[in-house]
Amino acid sequence: MAAQPTRRRHIIRRMCEQGDAVTTWETGADTENDIEAQAAVQEAERIFREALVRGDVPFAIDADKAPVKLDRWDARAKEADEIVIAPRLMGG
Q1: CA 12, 58, 76, 36: dihedral to nearest 10 degrees?
Q2: pTM to 2 decimals?
């Protein structure tokens, strides 16, 4: 029996005034032709880009690896297990 095509689930978390806002998307088998999957990727990218404009800092969090600061939405960001967006620190 052939193995089933697999999809990977990814998470983007944005810490905000409401707490922890979470959006998920999938990559992998047949996602290129899945309208809902593509819409979820576009939403994650929108959240990511808006965070950069605000000065927030996104980090890729992958199992058994140190967090990596991200400065653009690319294949590395899209394939990260989890992205955590930390709010910009304000001095005062």
Answers
A1: 30
A2: 0.86
Total H helices, total E strands in the chain: 2, 5
DSSP string, 21-62: EEEEEEEETTGGG-HHHHHHHHHHHHHHHHHHHHT-EEEEE-
Share of the chain above pLDDT 90, in %: 71
The token duo for 77 is 């960001």
- Work out whether strand 57-61 and strand 68-69 pair parallel, antiparallel, or are unpaired: antiparallel
Calpha distance 11→60 (Å, rounded):
10
All residues at 6 or more sequence positions from 41 whose CB lies less than 8 Å from its CB, including other chains: 25, 27, 31, 78
Residues near 48 by beta carbon (within 8 Å), at least 6 away in sequence: 12, 58, 70, 73, 77, 83, 85
